[in-house]
Design goal:
Length: about 180
Amino acid sequence: MRLCSHCVSHRTQGLWLKAAALLLLSVSLAACAAPTAAPASGSCTLALAPDTGDENAITAVIDAEGQLVVAQKIDELMALWADGGSVTNAKNTPDAVDDDQYWRDKDAIRHRYVRTVFPGAAGQAAPADLQITLEGERATVIATTHIGTEISPAGDRWTLIKQGNCWLLENLTYNLEPRP
């Protein structure tokens, strides 16, 4: 059976209309779907009680960083860091920034953990004597370094930022204690 050109055109037009209707339906359904939540980060990755105060959440983030270094869990470590974060080695000359070494942004921080920190296989990395200063959505923490047998009073300075309800690491400056 052969269709006339008018019938072929009519049938083609009908197929196009059905395809367009299906496309519109799929776009509409996608728009109605629940948005995917952003992955948890910082203190929000930790199992903290909802009423945990800022200082406790900040302490938990810094403690988690040390525990995750020992466990060498890089993905969990990186979830503690804010985009644009940095690590600075003050090289025991806290007043001279010209000799500092920097790791800027998450890729460089990840590289530092994997290539520099993890090979040392620290059995313990627990900052102590935390002195927390809160300034709105930002916190500065001075801590004594405890990595293995190394103890350096006031050797670390952490800065954290609050995004939503989550505290994230923004910077770690270490080796702040002056050389003897």
